[in-house]
Amino acid sequence: MPILDQAAKFAANRMPKVINPTAHAVIDYATAATFLGMAGLFWKRNKRAAVASLVCGATEVLTAMLTDYPGGVMKQLSFETHGSIDFGMAGLVAGLPDMMRFSGEPESRFFRVQGLAIAAVTGLTDFTGTGKPGQEQVDERVA
What we know:
Layout: H1 3-14, H2 21-42, H3 47-66, H4 79-99, H5 107-124, H6 135-142
Helix pairs in contact: 1-5, 2-3, 2-5, 3-4, 4-5
């Protein structure tokens, strides 16, 4: 497991779990709307950043719609699985500027901040309903 991934899980496991499923759903849809809106703003200046933002927004909407929580439509993913996807999404979003080769451009900051925000929200979310820290460890044992 990469060192940064271990560090993120270590930090997230020690955060208080203050975000409930309903609030997480609202944050997910707001995050998706932000990605989709920024895709429109980036379109004329930076097509690679626009496409990356469009893909992130679509992925966020799809994940939210498939999750078994308030706001989910098809309820195919458990909320715990959604949390694991969010951890991966945070790293992916932060790394997209490098993968899509626009890391030296101003648009890259948006992706770095969004990745950090997704990681923070994921770390603060109560995925098991217990409110206890160490929930990521529970996910790994189940998976």
